[in-house]
UniProtKB/TrEMBL annotation:
The keyword Magnesium does not apply. InterPro entries: CFA/CMAS, CMAS, SAM-dependent_MTases_sf. Belongs to the CFA/CMAS family. Residues 121-140 are annotated as: Disordered. Pfam families: CMAS. SUPFAM superfamilies: S-adenosyl-L-methionine-dependent methyltransferases (SSF53335). It comes from Streptantibioticus ferralitis. It comes from the Bacteria. This is Cyclopropane-fatty-acyl-phospholipid synthase.
Length: 439
């Protein structure tokens, strides 16, 4: 077992068909690879067993969450260099598919790589997944009860933890960076105000915020635009936090927070509906029903602002779910669709889509700000949750920032109107009214 790092490097390069661009430090203290590259530290041979039993993204993620591997140096650079092994999965001329070589056992080179990997990993059953992994459920996704369980896994991990990550705004969606030197709080306020202006909110109107989180949108709309707002969430921790914020602001007569599924809302009509970072939880099979429910809750002429992450279109539409690591550790049952599919389904439900604004670069910058917040409060974040949970959030936010930067995923604000039969949408002829932050 001498010089494990050199053997691991040779193994990875054999699978990749190209030089490895990160340095490896193995559990025996040996190192190999480019001297100035980020270091991938394998603390235990158990990390290799995780990769062999689940080649690709999930095995690597489990090893990370469990603390079996670590990165020394710039995490973003390390993920960038590893992206071909994990997400992009390019076919290398003369090489084997990254991290799937051990599966191609009919290939002699793959059999050799598999034998070498098994020797290094040592005997033993596959390690148990880290405790932070979501329980797997059978049956139909996106029932009311299963959606509540999924939301509980992600959002009910402690409001103080989220305060440290999100900052004072407590907004958990893409910010809107109007100024190059602006703060995260400035950018989140600008995003909330942009949505209010797109919805043309005004004194006395009724606003429904679907997936209201910690209440930031309904508070902003009530304080700045005088609306009467209802926020619904499936997270009991979020609801308790939001209700306290509403009470502290003296707005209990104007803002109501409910623990309620959007499918259970029955007190329309509303003048406007905001859905900010919530529709990713709806599911492809339920999306038309989601759009129909929201359409039915609006008055004629009412507006919907749907703010949603989108994946890139694929030749075959068989995979709507998010990446396996995200599905297991971050957003269970989450699904991403192309923006074109979202627009089509909204219009099939009766909406007239009037505007689509892409904010991809804004989300990359937002995620980097959240990662910086988490890293600056790291000991407290670990204490508030667990080492594994904090590692999940750091990995998913850093990897997501790169995914937005590389145009693997995007995020869009879709403004839609329940246009009356007379065709009067009520929208201004130009966008100027949306472009300047209200003071």
């Amino acid at each position: 077992m001498a010089d494990v790092a050199a053997r691991l490097t040779a193994l990875a390069e054999g699978a990749l068909g190209a030089p490895l661009t990160v340095r490896i430090r193995a559990w025996d203290g040996s190192e190999a690879g480019p001297p100035d590259a980020p270091v991938l530290v394998l603390r235990h041979r158990r990390a290799l067993r995780r990769l062999l039993w689940k080649p690709g993204e999930l095995g690597l993620a489990r090893a990370w969450v469990a603390g079996d591997i670590e990165v020394e140096g710039d995490l973003y650079e390390a993920l960038e260099r590893l992206s071909g092994l994990i997400w992009e999965r390019p076919e290398q001329p003369g090489g084997l598919r990254p991290l799937d070589a051990v599966r191609a056992l009919r290939d002699p080179a793959a059999r050799r790589l598999a034998r070498e990997a098994l020797t290094l990993a040592g005997p033993g059953l596959p390690p148990a997944p880290p405790a932070e992994e979501a329980a797997r459920h059978g049956g139909v996704r996106h029932t009311l009860s299963r959606d509540r369980e999924a939301i509980h896994h992600h959002y009910d991990v402690g409001n103080t933890f989220y305060e440290r990550v999100l900052g004072p705004s407590m907004v958990y969606s893409c910010a809107y960076w109007q100024q190059p030197g602006g703060t995260l709080e400035d950018a989140q306020e600008a995003k909330l105000d942009l949505i209010c202006r797109k919805l043309s909110l005004g004194e006395g109107q009724r606003l429904l915020d679907v997936g209201c989180g910690w209440g930031s949108m309904v508070l902003h709309a009530a304080q700045r635009y005088g609306v009467r707002a209802v926020g619904v969430t499936l997270s009991t921790e979020q609801a308790a936090y939001a209700r306290k914020r509403v009470a502290d602001a003296g707005l209990t007569d104007r803002v109501e927070i409910r623990v309620q599924d959007y499918r259970e809302v029955a007190d329309g009509p509303y003048d406007a509906i905001s859905s900010i970072g919530m529709a990713e939880h709806v599911g492809a099979a339920q999306y038309r029903a989601y759009a129909t429910v929201l359409h039915g809750l609006l008055r004629p002429g009412g507006r919907l602002l749907n703010h949603q992450i989108a994946r890139r279109p694929q030749e075959r539409e068989e995979r709507y779910r998010v990446d396996e690591f995200i599905d297991r550790y971050v957003f269970p049952d989450g699904e991403l669709s192309p923006v074109g599919s979202t627009v089509a389904l909204l219009e099939e439900a009766g909406f007239e889509v009037r505007d689509v604004e892409a904010l991809r670069e804004h989300y990359a910058r937002t995620l980097r700000a959240w990662v910086a917040n988490l890293e600056s409060h790291w000991p407290e974040a670990v204490r508030l949750t667990s080492p594994g949970r904090a590692r999940v959030w750091r990995l998913y936010m850093a990897a997501s920032a790169l995914a937005f930067e590389r145009n693997r995923i995007g995020v869009n604000q879709v403004l839609a109107v329940k246009t009356p039969t007379d065709g009067e949408s009520g929208l201004p002829l130009t966008r100027e009214s949306w472009l300047t932050l209200t003071t």
